[in-house]
Write the structure tokens for this entry.
Amino acid sequence: MNRLKPGYREITPAGISPLVELHDPRLTRAGVRLLLKRDDLIHPLLPGNKWRKLRHNVIRAAELEHETLLTFGGAYSNHVRAVAAAGALFGFQTIGVIRGEEHLPLNEVLTFATNQGMRLTYLDRATYRAKNTAPLIEALHQEFGRFYLLPEGGSNELAVRGCAELPAEIDVPFDVICCPVGTGGTLAGIAAGLSPGQRALGFSVLRGGQFLAEDVASLQAATYGRATANWSMVYDFHAGGYAKRNADLDAFIDDFANRHGMRLEWVYVAKMMLGVFTMAEQGAFPRGTVIVAVVTGPMSGG
């Protein structure tokens, strides 16, 4: 248990999320086993990779005696939602810098964030593109004072280290571990935590997401001094782009729910799962392969 600075509540390490085998005749025909790492069940307000990315950052913020967390994201950002929840749980003020103009009434994500006490501010899309530059960060300090900065999506060196803890929780021998990729932090960490002979496969949820491979390598280099060679990415299952969906993805989600009683989160998880099933049926995985798919966002019905 890690004690935060005086006046803050205590934060306990995340429990180990369950590992559940998914039985499906399509996988049986392909000769592969698929296990779901149910990170969506870690915490009701901090599900999936959000807690893994935030855990060490929250501790560092407390050690540095920060009272405010500031982060960036779009209007539907699960990361913004998670930072707001973490602030309410652990006693931080929170600020969300949102891409685009304010739209009222607020959507479900931003309504939740404000109900958790988050203060929202907005940047037009051109200005938002400069979110990582010193002048913009300084302008935010001038407006809001001292804060602990969390990058868009939460992917930094501490987030990578948090995600690298995941493979050690898996007590079943496996060959490939899969995750959706939005900013690269989860894939960078998971790959760094693998044992020899295992590999990680990331599924981009962005259209034209080839640049993410460089981001993953950069995150690993910043965290560990070098990039590993045990991961790769695929780019064909984005369903039109970030936070977009198409008829094929919707049909897969409906079919999966009918077969397994779980409705997949569609921005990230469903795209990964569609990719895993499609690749398995195409013979991309040798027979006998054991695959772990990390469920990084909430599911319903199971």
